[in-house]
Amino acid sequence: MASIELKGVGKTYAGAVRAVEGVDLAIGDGELVVLVGPSGCGKSTLLRMIAGLETITDGTISIGGKVVNKEEPAERDIAMVFQNYALYPHMSVRQNLEYGLKNRGTPRPEIDSRVAEAARILEIAPFLDRRPRQLSGGQRQRVAMGRAIVRQPKAFLFDEPLSNLDAKLRGQMRVEIRTLQRRLKTTSVYVTHDQLEAMTLADRLVVMNAGHIEQVGTPTELYDRPQTLFVAGFIGSPPMNFIDVADLSSDNLTHVQAGAPGAKTIGIRPDGLTTTANPQAIRLETTVALIEPVGAESHIHVRWQNRMVVAQMHGRPGFAEGEAVTLYADPGSIHRFAADGRRIG
Residue-wise pLDDT tens for the chain (345 aa)? Predict the structure, then answer.
């Protein structure tokens, strides 16, 4: 195991395209950090630079206290799990697991011991003599993780490993990856564009946007106190509602400005809107446009001043489409942002 440290890391492609810009990030020994953001934000490029699959234009990357900028991937003592599994189709599961160890000259008794332990942990022992084409997607992903485990590396790197699985299997594999990482206590960096996946896996989240880091923190910190409009809109499902302060009535505007003078935009999470009357709350007179039953809760899409707002409520609220509904947001649950998109307060 080892810590990973990035100092001023940047990547420029031909044509002066900046994919990653001045990233500073310290990942603790045994920590699971998730890089999350929209497509093209630079998260996969950053992961590939840690792995040594992309050259670094600026800055330094250290693994276990050693700068690895000029080291080849095989010299960095990391193991990477890809979204397409990257298994050798002509080899059995056992041969796939053994391959990297044999190339390193690992003694046969140790190879057998490591393969048996990984197969036991991942429950793939019954499949050791099968070819990858004879396995399901989830089984192939377990084999890919097993191939990483047997190497006993300093760090695991995951590049959207669950994106090819269906929704139910993704949920199961999330639990398995988190449980496995906690058991092995191996430093891990995980890339995904799926914020639910990120929130449920991470010790800490790194939200990226346009090649730079917007915010770093625990999933709870980023949900409760997003520092920018981008993070506020990206983290949370359904996403946060944004309202320009100029669109509020003078009465409601007083409640907003009392908490943060200079606010230009307020954010209200869908679960922060209720139908419970509160004279101190911001009040929105709305009309129900659409109701989405989602298991034990409902997403209520309403029209307010020619825009859509979403409320997240438990159970079945009993509204009908087209019905007038008054929603309330307590001042304590409101997020305030300045004109530059930065949080106020």
Answer: 699 999 999 999 987 889 999 999 999 999 999 999 999 999 999 999 999 999 999 999 999 999 999 999 989 999 999 888 888 999 999 999 999 899 888 999 999 999 999 999 888 999 999 999 999 888 898 899 899 999 889 999 999 988 888 888 888 889 889 998 998 899 999 999 888 899 999 999 999 999 999 999 999 999 999 999 999 999 999 999 999 988 888 778 777 877 677 889 999 999 999 999 888 889 999 999 999 998 889 999 999 998 999 999 998 888 899 999 999 998 888 999 999 999 998
DSSP 103: H
Q: How are beta strands 297-304 and 307-314 bridged, if at all?
A: antiparallel
In one-letter notation, the amino acid at residue 208 is: M
Residue ranges of the alpha helices (H) in the chain? 43-51, 93-103, 108-122, 137-150, 167-184, 195-201, 219-224, 229-234, 250-259
CB neighbour list of residue 113: distance below 8 Å, 6 or more residues apart: none
Q: Residue 196 phi/psi, 5° resolution?
A: -65, -45
Q: DSSP assignment of 210-255, as one string?
A: TTEEEEEE-HHHHHHS-SBHHHHHHSSSSPPEEEEGGGS-HHHHHH
